[in-house]
Predict the structure.
Amino acid sequence: MSAHLLENLNPEQRAAVTLPHESALILAGAGSGKTRVLTTRIVWLIQTGQVSPHGVLAVTFTNKAAKEMMTRISAMLPINTRGMWVGTFHGLANRLLRTHYREAGLPQSFQILDSQDQLSAIKRLMKAMNVDTEKYEPKKVQRFINSNKEAGHRARDAEAYDEYSMRLAELYEAYDAQCQREGVADFPELLLRAYELLYRNEPLRQHYQDRFRHILIDEFQDTNTLQYRWLKLFAGPHTALFAVGDDDQSIYAFRGANTANMAEFEREFAHGNVIKLEQNYRSHGHILTAANTLISQNAHRLGKNLWTAEGDGEPIRVFNAYSDQEEASFVVDEVRALNREGMNLSDMALLYRSNAQSRVLEHALFSASVPYRVYGGLRFFERQEVKHALAYLRLLTNPEDDGAFLRVVNFPTRGIGARTLEQLTDGAARAGMSLWQAACTGGGKVAGFAKLIEDIKQVTADLPLAEAIDHVIEASGLADYYRADKEGADRLENLNELVNAAALFSQETEENTYDATGEPAPGETESVRALDTFLAHAALEAGEHQAGAGHDALQLMTVHAAKGLEFHAVFITGLEESLFPHEQSANEESGLEEERRLMYVAITRARRRLYLSHAQSRMLHGQTRYSLPSRFLDELPEQVLLNLNRRSEPAYPSGGYHAPAPAPRSPQTGNDTGYKVGQSVAHAKFGTGIIIDFEGRGADARVQVKFRDVGTKWLALAYAKLSAA
DNA sequence: ACAAGTGTCCTTTTT
DNA sequence: GGACACTTGT
């Protein structure tokens, strides 16, 4: 049985899967079979009787990865995997807190705030405290709170050395008090609460440490400080930690991921028990060479070099476009050509650094009737109409939730305006009540709202989840509101979808094969528990980015979103200085290294064919910007590149992939110098740059040049020795 | 009380 | 270009 399991694994993979009961670090390069190793190890451990499903804790970062892992395990292991804890950090923390809510100091029906909810809670607090939001931007306050929580610091432990940060710490403290009062927890709070729960409660800690014999962590390079400490707390003296990660693919430092965790883990747990998976099963040789060469220019690495048994494959195609539009039409032409040759659109991906870049590409694809799918943007449970419905539901199960109250008290409009709410808020604060309580004791329109919620509560008390939600949508007036709205059809549709989602959710949790969000607690009111579990699910798993019409479509996404995916053909677009690497990251060494890792991730998504393109001019934020090619292009080995611009005609000005591009539309066209805006030039002293502006004629002519290394300068053409580059 | 108009700021993102 | 906050007008 287990011999069969280990077939088709290479020696390193097999060694990793069959490691003895010891902690180990698996450095798994891109495309090296990381997930396979992780899941096979779990199955192997169970099959060989070394652990029962009950003793396994497997942690991932995304719900998608957790589901994928569970699916693969169930496919290999025909036994009940219910006792296994597989989920995201937040999902598992939630599970722990729901089970031990009393010990954790939370109400049973505590609600989870997503980032949006958290931000509005902070704004509300700051308003109540009369804090100047110019001086203390709510977003910055949010970042302060979250980064402190993620470092394991409560307000009292927060580093505060000056007036400004001391004020931030005060806000943090007040914010936590508000959350406690309202019975809500934000994302980092889930982790910190769960951490503190186990840290302070010795018997509980003992219990879980004894239980989990094996802890396996996916994407370990993405863990933050708190998550690492969390894992250490779960690990008892008899627990083996199996951490899988790739420091070269760490692209989330900006949100707190701490790559140093890998080195630390090696020191604290693995003790030299490190296995490198370096054979890549995804990409052809030239693509890997490019990736290896690029990433070798990062100074801080654990060190790893991917290789493949495949041949070199095709060269990497580089295209220099005159404008973002030309870049887009180039991409469209290539995509169609590949599609004609038989490659599915869904096997091709268009990658970009930031979401704003997708529009030009979308426009070109749309005009050419190429089906495409964009990842990113609003997700199902984040849509305003869905959040409104959820707020009503939250109010039913947890009336202390002022955030939910304020969200829906006047939506649909009930004639309850700012003035009324101000009075209500003041009254509630003076009496030390929640808004809900204050509304119940008062009169007028606000009391009418309270009555409405009370009625809904009565009717839905014994209804199944989906029917309860359906009633809420009707009785609250949400449905009528969107029916009356000319543009409300989609929103109405989504509310319908919410009812369906709830029905599906009830069905799935009943079957209970996989339950990442809540432990069924015996003896509690059925429908209330179901509602709480569903609301937690909605917050923790915000749903798909877009309703997936499962047809063959080209895939558009940011490089971040592409991590973990692979495609036959990949287009990396917008390879320009200030865009990729992004200008806000390029200044710092660590920022630049992260951008380089991002580029590394992008390159290693490709199996057979890779296109790199950049545009000399680009519409961004309503302005045309001129940029130099990304330094990452220079960091690739020339022998694996194929410059498409040099196929038939000179590279400049249009690149001439197809029709020559129109002349630049600049008020200075038609000058007499032989230079134009957008052109790349070289200067003996300042290096290479690009002309971004122009003034004067003849002997007085001056050009403004944006140099890669020395910034932007005005140069008199009569004196500066410029040459075309 | 609320709709319509004006001004500001723009990474990346999962939970 | 577009989301979001804030101000003005009815």
Summary: Residues 356, 359, 619-622 of chain A lie near DNA strand C (CB under 10 Å from a C1'). Residues 381-504 of chain A form a domain with the PCRA; domain 4 fold (CATH 1.10.486.10).
